[in-house]
Design brief:
With about 725 residues, this protein is an alpha/beta fold. The protein contains 30 helices and 21 strands. It binds adenosine-5'-triphosphate and magnesium ion.
């Protein structure tokens, strides 16, 4: 139990308190997450609890991954335990039981881009001007409703029948119906449907209650009603629930997080034990004091103060730059100044309020050849070509997915006009079937021009054949095959433009993404792969080992820590944002966010702002952030607050001779790697066309080696170690040995 000696008394007490409800309530960096990981290890090693019987949930895949890593380090081996985000836990449960709610088990998960497209389609059908009402407006309403379990009908009842509410009702209603029809769920549905499933089917609930005898939730302050219900139902049987959180770090109220969940834990779970942690192990005392001086301006909070036995450390540096370019320039030069041989670039983080701020930093950093990673923003998976190929895969998985179908039916161009698609959509609606089902009907397709009809048939055949073979193929092989046989790759190659070239590169890079997943799990199925991609929250591609400065929003940085932290954009209107002033408690929530940002820093902290800022195409003079004015001035060095500043050309930190055309080396290497993969894709997709004879010894990328039993030119039957498989020729890259 040596590992428990690293904990302080309170932490140890919490780790060893395994039975009954437990609340660990404590400020940032006090070791809440560490205590939880030690607690899990303690239960496994000392109490003999089977990891299979435990469930730990948190908010981002990254946090979940880190938690698993820490536990496995403590235990000394890999463990079979659900350490997951809320969304993935719900998704796993639904995959197994969605039929009870009337979904197919291969249901698709729609990400925010899909949601927008869906809303646009519905608005079009309802003749709603999408310029006046943008999809985000409706999605906001819908998401709020789902968080509070308000159905479209309830929404109408509550909001009465003014024109606007009626319209929102119609959109919401249409949206839900289409999702169901497409056999798809959005992120909110995952949570909601898991709860509905438990309510509807007692046997399923019992099954999971029996399994999860110990339940743990990190960042409990950010749970909403539905997440609360999910946990509560699961925990009811055993009452062994441990939640950890910090009311000062609740930053998701705008998304329905309910701070009462943590404040009323003791009421909800009888005989709960509450343990408070007060020592901070993360930051210098100056940083802690800065954090405290900000958060203590919040009125609705429980008084608490952290202490540390670390030294005071440096003061925070404040810089009011001339404009946003200047600000980015300053940050980049400070990183250069601090870097030194003993520091990694990944020790630095730039945490901003909105993704729109990232661009200037990217520019400034790449000019100096400083490697960086942006987490969030326009996600890699939102790129057109990636999205298109994902839709091919989605349709292979779930043919009811009309949204995926309409996206790719004419991508690449197949001479299928919008009229044709409209006609078929109308027909599918009348027949009450999916668009794909209608397209499969040769009588329907033959009514179009012979070219269109041939292309349609070719398309449905392509999808059906891959769908039939999906269990026999690796995801990467399917991807290669679809890329080539759909004509997508060829169409891009024929364009022969720079843009097309970069799209091809992205598609090749995506192939390495698939490889990564297959390396981790060689048997990963299409639906598992799709799940993993769909659930990638913004922060998920953060690889701490990569030596690069990290750029992300303060929201995504929750729970993480970095030696050096920059918080740019300290201006009224940006941080706190204007919208904070419209809402009751809006400002307090922004202040909590500021507290979260500051407390990510271990050694040094920079706050910066710009005198003049261009954002969303508008240039304005700015006022220093209210939060700066609230800070204890004795903790700050650099520019004085309220001081007007003009750029001082002579100042060392600003000028360090970096030339604007510093080449960014790693890129060239990446490009080379992609070209190599590209060659492999073409080779892979072409493979497998040979025929085989009975008795041939072959190898299959997924199933290993086997003996051909029969082959009729179309279907090959093979005996593998784990059984006999029938496969279509020309799909699986089989190799004769
Ligand atoms: P947050 O509120 O930001 O999520 P937290 O309370 O979960 O923070 P942790 O991330 O668990 O805090 O811990 C913060 C840092 O303090 C980590 O680097 C951790 O290793 C260290 N730490 C925690 N407990 C101790 C301890 N008893 N002794 C030394 N270091 C500790
Ligand atoms: Mg934590």
């Amino acid at each position: 139990m040596e590992y428990l000696n690293k904990l302080n008394n309170e932490q140890r007490e919490a780790a060893m308190h395994t039975e009954g409800p437990l609340l660990i309530l404590a400020g940032a960096g006090s070791g809440k997450t560490s205590t939880m990981t030690h607690r899990i290890a303690y239960m496994i090693k000392e109490k003999g609890v089977d990891p299979y019987n435990m469930l730990a949930v948190t908010f981002t895949n990254k946090a979940a991954g880190e938690m698993r890593e820490r536990v496995e380090n403590l235990v000394g081996e890999g463990i079979n335990m659900w350490i997951l985000t809320f969304h993935s836990a719900c998704l796993r449960i639904l995959r197994a039981h969605a039929d009870i709610l009337g979904y197919g088990k291969d249901f698709a998960v729609y990400d925010p881009t899909d949601q927008k497209t869906l809303i646009k389609n519905i608005c079009k059908e309802l003749n709603i001007d999408s310029k006046k009402f943008n999809p985000a407006y409706f999605l906001g309403i819908i998401s709020k409703c789902k968080e509070q379990r308000i159905s479209p009908e309830d929404y109408l009842k509550v909001n009465g029948d003014d024109l606007k509410s009626k319209m929102a009702y119609q959109v919401y209603d249409g949206y839900q119906k289409t999702l169901k029809k497409n056999n798809a769920m959005d992120f909110d549905d995952l949570l909601l449907n898991a709860v509905k499933l438990f309510e509807k089917d007692e046997a399923t609930l019992l099954k999971y209650q029996r399994r999860f005898r110990y339940i743990m939730v990190d960042e409990y302050q950010d749970t909403n009603q539905i997440q609360y219900a999910f946990i509560k139902m699961l925990a009811e049987a055993h009452n062994n629930i441990c939640v950890v959180g910090d009311d000062d770090q609740c930053i998701y109220q705008w998304r329905g997080a309910d701070i009462r969940n943590i404040l009323e834990f003791e009421k909800d779970f009888k005989d709960a034990k509450v343990i408070k942690l007060e020592q901070n192990y993360r930051s210098t005392s100056n940083i802690l004091d800065v954090a405290h001086s900000v958060i203590s301006h919040n009125k609705g909070r429980k008084q608490k103060k952290l202490w540390t036995d670390q030294e005071a450390g440096n003061k925070l540096i404040y810089r009011r730059a001339e404009d946003e370019k200047d600000e980015a320039y300053f940050v980049a030069s400070e990183i250069n100044r601090m870097k030194g041989p003993s520091r990694k670039y990944s020790d630095f983080a730039i945490l901003y309020r909105t993704n729109a701020q990232s661009r200037n930093f990217e520019e400034a950093l790449s000019r100096r050849g400083i490697p960086y990673r942006v987490l969030g923003g326009l996600r890699y998976y939102d790129r057109k070509e990636i999205k298109d190929m994902m839709c091919y895969l989605r349709l292979v998985q779930n043919q009811a997915d009309d949204l995926a179908l309409t996206r790719i039916i004419n991508e690449p161009k197949r001479g299928i006009g919008s009229k044709t698609i409209e006609k078929m959509t109308a027909l599918a609606k009348v027949r009450n079937e999916s668009l794909f089902a209608t397209m499969m009907d040769k009588e329907v397709t033959s009514s179009f021009s012979s070219k269109a009809s041939a292309n349609l048939d070719e398309f449905t055949e392509l999808i059906s054949s891959y769908s039939a073979e999906k269990d026999n193929l690796r995801v990467s092989d399917m991807y290669d095959g679809l890329l080539v046989k759909s004509g997508y790759l060829k169409a891009l190659e024929e364009q022969n433009t720079l843009e097309a070239e970069s799209r091809i590169e992205n598609l090749m890079e995506f192939k390495s993404v698939i490889y990564d997943y297959e390396e981790e799990d060689p048997n990963i199925s299409l639906s598992e792969f799709m799940e993993r991609i769909a659930l990638l929250a913004e922060v998920d591609n953060h690889d701490a080992d990569e030596n690069a400065v990290v750029l992300m929003t303060m929201h995504s940085a929750k729970g993480l820590e970095f030696p050096f932290v920059f918080m740019p954009g300290m201006e009224d209107g940006l941080f706190p944002g204007w919208r904070a002033f419209d809402r009751e408690d809006g400002l307090e929530e922004e202040r909590r966010l500021c507290y979260v940002g500051i407390t990510r820093a271990r050694e040094r902290l920079w706050l910066t702002g710009a005198e003049r800022r261009t954002l969303y195409g508008k240039t304005d003079y700015t006022r220093e952030s209210q939060f700066l004015r609230e800070l204890d001035k004795r903790l700050i060095e650099g520019d004085g607050i309220y001081e007007k500043k003009t750029r001082d050309k002579a100042e060392g930190a600003f000028i360090d001779g970096a030339s604007s055309d510093t080449p960014f080396k790693p890129f060239d290497q990446l490009k080379y790697a992609r070209q190599q993969t590209k060659k492999n894709v073409a080779a892979g997709a072409a493979g497998g066309s040979a025929s085989f004879d009975a008795g041939d010894r072959i190898s299959h990328p997924k199933f290993g080696e086997g003996d051909v039993i029969s082959c009729d030119g179309k279907i090959v039957e093979v005996k593998f170690a784990d059984g006999i498989k029938k496969m279509a020729l020309g799909f699986a890259p089989l190799k004769k040995l």
